[in-house]
Amino acid sequence: AFNQGDFEQFADMMAEDINWYEIGATDPVVGKEAVFASMGSGGRDFEIEAEVHDVVANDDHTLALVSATATRGGATFHYQTVEILHFRDGKVVDRWSFANDSQAVQEFFS
Question: Which pLDDT value is given to residue 23?
């Protein structure tokens, strides 16, 4: 959904009270509306193309190994992440993301 720009489907996957931990952040962005506000609600100045390398899942959690390519202001940045999702009632209630170089990711998006 994210790669196709289908933010409605992306939002439908999230619980209203989601805890969304950004790469390198200590505190989460709390709530679906706040998550989209933090992303610029479609008016963002970057694009991310994500390719899932592998997925491990059970009833409550999903871990995805992801290769990502971000573009922003004519610059391109490649990085890898592990995305960890915790589900309750079929919705994502917690999301953590860890990158191979958190500092470089934070610098690119700041």
Answer: 92
Question: What H or E segment, with its residue span, contains residue 33?
Answer: helix 32-38
pLDDT in tens, 83-98: 999 999 999 999 999 9
Structure tokens at 16: 């209203």
Q: Which of these, 31, 49, 33, 8, lies nearest to 95 by C-alpha position?
A: 31
Burial zone of 72 (CB within 10 Å; 0-12 exposed, 13-18 middle, 19+ buried): middle
DSSP state of 22: P
- Distance from C-alpha of 33 to C-alpha of 42, rounded to nearest angstrom: 13
As to burial, measured by CB atoms within 10 angstroms (0-12 exposed, 13-18 middle, 19+ buried), residue 76 is exposed
Residues 6+ apart with CB under 8 A from 110: none
